[in-house]
Amino acid sequence: MAEGIATRASTPRRRIVFLVYDKVTLQDVAAPLEIFARAKDFGADYDVLLASPTGRSVQTTSFVSLNVDVGVDALVGDLDTLIVPGGVPPDTDPQTYAKPEEPTPDAIPAVVDAAGRLVPQAGRIASVCTGAFVLASLGVLDGRRATTHWAHCDELAERFPRVEVAPDALFVQDGPVVTGAGICAGADLALALVEGDYGADLARRVARWLVVFLQRPGGQAQFSVWHRRGSVEDSGVAKAMDDVILDPAGDHSVSAMARRAAMNERRFARLFTQQVGISPVRYVEQTRLEAAKLMLGSGDSGLEAVASSCGFGSAETMRRAFRRSIGVSPADYRERFRTTGMHREGSRPDRTARADEVVPPAGAGLGRGRRERRGHPRQNGLRHGDHGL
Q1: Which helix (H) or strand (E) holds 380?
Q2: The CA-based dihedral angle spanning residues 151, 162, 215, 338, taken in that order and rounded to the nearest 10 degrees
Q3: 173-201 tens-digit pLDDT
Q4: CB neighbourhood size of 10 (10 A)
Q5: pTM over cut 0.85
Q6: Do 327 and 219 form a contact (C-beta atoms < 8 A)?
Q7: What is the pLDDT of residues 368-386, one digit of tens each?
Q8: Residues of 323-360 as b/e, b for ≥16 C-beta within 10 angstroms?
Q9: CB contact at 8 A, 225 and 286
């Protein structure tokens, strides 16, 4: 029998506990909860509890409070799965919400203490979003691959160097530990747990009912990049970055960028890489990708026009960049992420696919050892119209 999180079939009932706390991110809890609830409708035997350090209800970051089933001290016996969602300390300035400088929940002593007491009781340990920082602070992620929200991946790697951070993964399984990326990726993680517990058929039924991907294309690199600008101190490097953002089709060779920054090429490239975390060439490509994704997601321009406007020169060059960076083609990105256009008067969005076309064929179970889901369409067997039902 396979080891790790695919071996839970020997347990008749699977007891899942969410550790919630004041200022927990609602979607980090709600998305997985919905997955487990619908899985139970289809025959899964889950017993799901919300536990808080005090046993009292908690206030989320999204206007509503959550009733709690039990206090951490009152939990007795083994847990099949402990899930630590993301959130912020209760005294966090709301102006920092949804920004890279947003504080992480490992700054809440009661949460870290509660997680530390529950971890030894759990056969499987998971986190969503910045909940990974709580696990990292306890040493749970030492020597393991893990992920978190893209805006916090650099911070996780810097603060916890023994953790091997996978910044593009929607979720990562390393032995009995599973970490998910930001917010809605909690649904990806939960579907993977259901698939490991009860098989691909049940997970596919849940995904189809909720009209979500069982394995969605692309990793979370598609949602990042421009947040890097805020951490740059050198004015020449900052201006070079701004120039690319303002005019992605311009001349942004290393020599041109260095000239505008009044530096020689070698010094500019070294300083840029130190402060931004990636090379100038990589930054230019990623920024052009971001610009192209905005055009693809909100307009009807042809691929050649998008490629020209964003500095790729040709649609083929842009296609290779998309495949290399995020694992999907520009056409597939437009299909999956374009806005509806409903805000435009008289518009009629072309969204004719049936709901049962959303779910691609299932992949393997969670399996032995490590697993990382980036959602690459070839890996997942994603084919338009192939429902896998």
Answers
A1: helix 377-380
A2: 20
A3: 999 999 998 778 888 899 989 988 998 88
A4: 6
A5: no
A6: yes
A7: 355 555 543 333 332 222 3
A8: bebbbbbbebbbebbbeeeeeeeeeeeeeeeeeeebbb
A9: yes
